[in-house]
Amino acid sequence: MSDDIYREIILDHYRNPRNKGKLSNADVSIHDSNPLCGDEIDIHLKIEEEKVKDIKFEGRGCAISQASASMLTEMIMDKPLTTVKDLTKEDVLENIGLMNLGPARIKCALLSLKVLKLGMVRYYADKDPSSAERLTDDSKLY
Amino acid sequence: MQKAALDVSKIRQDFPILRRKINGNKTLVYLDNAATTQKPMSVINAICNYYMNYNSNIHRAVHQLAEEATLEYEKTREKVARFINARSTDEIIFTRNATEAINLISYSWARTNIRKDDKVVLTEIEHHSNIVPWQILSLEKGSILEYVGIDDNGYLNMEDYKRHLQSNKVKLISVSHMSNVLGTIVPVNEIIKMAHDQSVPVLVDGAQSVPHMPVDVQDMDCDFMAFSAHKMLGPTGVGVLYVKREILNEMPPFIGGGDMIKEVHKNETKYNDLPYKFEGGTPNIADVIGFGAAIDYLNKIGMDKVREHEMDVTNYAIEAIAGVKGVSIYGPSNADHRGGVVSFNIGDIHPHDLATIMNDHGIAIRSGHHCAQVLMERLDVAATSRTSFYIYNTKEEVDTFINALDQARRLFRI
């Protein structure tokens, strides 16, 4: 029910998003949108020594999509790419505390993860094509 | 003499879905009628009856089932022709939906009549179904798309329209009769008169108007009109294209195949008479028959009364929504100029979040860009929430909705 979804922390990340903005000299920038809602997310990654050196996101959309993106940036900042590659949708839903979303709204919650996964695909496309191929399948979250 | 109002409680009994519970114990409040309407038992029964008793293909076989099916299918065509006051059933073509009806015109009529640098004029309120087919045409033919602007209250800028019309390259005006977002009722009679003075034909997208008010194609004098059965109590999968017969006579076919032919030889085909020439393949027989029952239902009520009831509920809703803190309402404030559609935003609550909260209360509203992203850009909003009403909606349902809206406001601390 809505009272469980629109908790203080979700509204806080919606209204005061962390790591929002552009990133100069990003190594990867990826955009995607949700045609159902029109939610949009861009993720910019700065990668050094196979770690997320910096991450910023831009976007517009509902509280769930934007709060989820904000919380995802905090979740993976400074993390090794191996961790980022292995992130599952369950990890993300648990992190934002929304385990019971319906089929329509779960796409809002997972849009940022989808963009991040597409970012990993792009990053590895040149470096390690076989890894990129496996990641492509991973990016099909819903 | 006092006009009798709609007997809404009696009407509601004809719609079994309105007794449905959402989230356990909340009675459904269905306020998404601009997307699709609910179906009365008579429509559901007509479809069942066809499949149970006379299911067969039409226009060909001689056996009794086929005769009955053909008769019922063609009866709907007569009902549609009378409903919009077409001169003849030859002018009524069944499609899958209003979108396909508009595409039929773009693929058949427009590809024959529109050339490089010719202009198709739309408006900023159009649904994607009345934008994308013309963009596809532009890519293929090098034709040019132009948009008549709206003012901040959602009214069409008629001066802008006149300016567009003055170009001798304008070959078609394609305009929505009623905005599916703002509810604006567009002055199509005036638009058509002005276009015809310049010998420019006009396509009217009637998807939002035909279900909600009396529409007379002869009085309006439109050249083409498209609308959908499912927005007027009928089933999905049935649309209508009305075209003036003299134009239809000159149009090449859209979809080639069975039923649209008279004779087929190895290298040539003689096409069937109107309107069958434009209905290739086995059509959606069951749902066309169901659509006939929907028209009967609306006729029994009377379209004047449908419009009157919707204005009553819409006025009540606009006043109540405007009274909620933090709300902005889009479109004309005068219900004479708008249909039963109210789009709004409240504070920084995204429409999808609002729709989720509404669903907790059993209330179905629409949220998003409503397939009108050109309009969203003009309004400078990403999305809106939309309530839209029909014959079975009550002021009590509006009250339930307002109560939920107020709870959403508090949840988001606005």
How many individual helices of chain A?
A: 7
So what's the CATH class of the largest domain in chain B? Alpha Beta
Strand order of the largest sheet of chain A: 1-2-3
Radius of gyration of chain B: 22 Å
Taking the alpha carbons of the first and last residues of chain B, their distance comes to 47 Å
Q: How many β-strands of chain A, per DSSP?
A: 3
CATH topology-level name of the largest domain in chain B: Aspartate Aminotransferase, domain 2
Walk me through this protein's architecture.
The complex is a heterodimer of chains A (142) and B (414). Chain A has helices at residues 2-5, 8-15, 63-76, 81-86, 89-96, 105-127, 129-138; strands spanning 28-34, 39-48, 51-60. Chain A has 142 residues and is an alpha+beta fold. In chain A, helix 2 (8-15) crosses helix 3 and helix 3 (63-76) crosses helix 5 (89-96). The longest helix of chain A has 23 residues, at 105-127. Chain A is globular. The two termini of chain A are 22 Å apart. Chain B is an alpha/beta fold. Chain B has 2 domains: 8-30 and 303-411, Aspartate Aminotransferase, domain 1, CATH 3.90.1150.10; 44-299, Type I PLP-dependent aspartate aminotransferase-like (Major domain) (Aspartate Aminotransferase, domain 2), CATH 3.40.640.10. Chain B has helices at residues 8-13, 41-54, 64-83, 98-113, 132-141, 158-165, 188-197, 217-220, 245-248, 285-301, 303-322, 351-360, 373-379, 395-411; strands at 21-22, 26-27, 29-30, 92-95, 119-123, 144-148, 170-176, 202-205, 224-228, 239-243, 261-264, 269-271, 327-330, 341-346, 363-364, 366-368, 384-388. The model of chain B has no long low-confidence stretch (mean pLDDT 96). The interface between A and B is medium-sized, with 19 and 20 residues.
